[in-house]
Design a protein that fits this description.
Elements: H1 4-11, E1 19-23, E2 26-37, E3 43-51, E4 61-64, E5 76-81, E6 84-89, H2 100-108
Antiparallel strand pairs: 1-2, 2-3, 3-4, 4-6, 5-6
Amino acid sequence: MTDLNHEIARLKAVCALAEPWQEGGTIAVYLPGLKIIGPKGEVHILDALLWPHARDSYPTRLYLERAIPHSSTAGWTESVIMGRTWQVLSWRDVPAHLPWIEILANHMRPFR
């Protein structure tokens, strides 16, 4: 079982305002003002939602408030969660058994 407080504390090291969100009995992590370095070294500061559990046939997901240009050849799609529209990159195989900070790091790989 995941220690929610420990997982959130580790995520706060990269996003100080990280907070748990709950939808349909599942915990996600809202990451307001997450800093992402793009493939050309550009800095993107945007809200994100880390879904460290299975959703939409993916083991885990990272939703962003907007797509990051030139980040990958994989496609972007939209998803509505908690009444908000998010962009999500088709990026697979980030397992849910990892610590959440590692799940986030793996989901950020295509943005480099």
